Fold:
Amino acid sequence: MTATANSHKPFIIPIFLPHAGCPHRCVFCDQSSITGVPSKRPPKDIRAQIEAFLTFKTARRKRVQIAFFGGNFLGMPADIIKRLLAEAAEYVTTGRVNSIRFSTRPDTIDLQRLDWIKDFPVKTIELGVQSMDEQVLSTTRRGHGAAETEKAIEHLKKLNYEIGVQLMVGLPEDTPERAIASALQVARLKPDFIRIYPTVVLAGSPLAAWYRKGNYVPLSLEEAVRQVKNLYLLFKKKNIAVIRMGLQASEDLEKGSRVLAGPYHPAFGHLVYSEISLDLAVAQIESSALNTDSISIRVNSRDVSKLRGLRNRNIEILKKKFNFETVLLKADDTLAQDQIIVSSTHSNSN
Ligand code: SF4
Structure:
């Protein structure tokens, strides 16, 4: 992860509000599966949850945010939005929390709702954009188009909110080209950070029925990693931090009972970083033109596990691809992250 991404990493106190404020069910979504919290009315009082989380905060984590996730925050009635924000704001007033964040649909960002929240210490707003492709948006029954996302980001920028965008790959009707085109459109809007989720078939989602009837085929894990990697690299080039790739592992997702099919992996982000490291190593080896059957690769210690890959996968790939007998990985903290130095461990090399 880059330093830019880390700067977006506050200590989060999550308040899950599964499907609260959702106008309907988007085909891919089942927040109860994702959050492990059953859908119900927003809690009467969130203070107990906040207090419990504050006991986990370590001194190292400086910035603290209360986060309302799992629904369409600004789709709820004004009185509930204001009550939840007021309870969270008490913690900001007393200095125990720095600010508030929430996730909401792009089509809920309008002047009236922004007026409801303007007196509360909301810093970050995450938009569930998912795609900028009109075909994908209508097939997944989002109920809004790309223009709403453009307008929403424009409004939020004017008011200086920190803006996050959630994107998905592998949605029905999506293609690698459409995913890239979506990402480019989003990058042009210059949000502050991105989350990328590969579509998985969640048990309680409408997509589950499509999948069972054979009307939807999810991406393979390999293809999902490839597509997410391409999006990650695109945003990196545009200097936009990608703070998460893949669903957060939860007990329910881990048990496998909630994911019917699709590219779910508890360490999805790690798989993407490993692919990127592998590509870098391959390029380095090819350009070094070493005449040897034994090499060592030096990387920053923080890159060692990425380059190794899960269960040594990348090392095995490199051995096979270049006919190496040994590939030694060495940590070298004089190197910057993502820097790779390849050398021969035999004297007959050039
Ligand atoms: S994607 Fe967002 S708006 Fe759609 S059902 Fe899920 S939480 Fe609600």
Remarks:
- The CA atoms of residues 145 and 219 lie 24 Å apart.
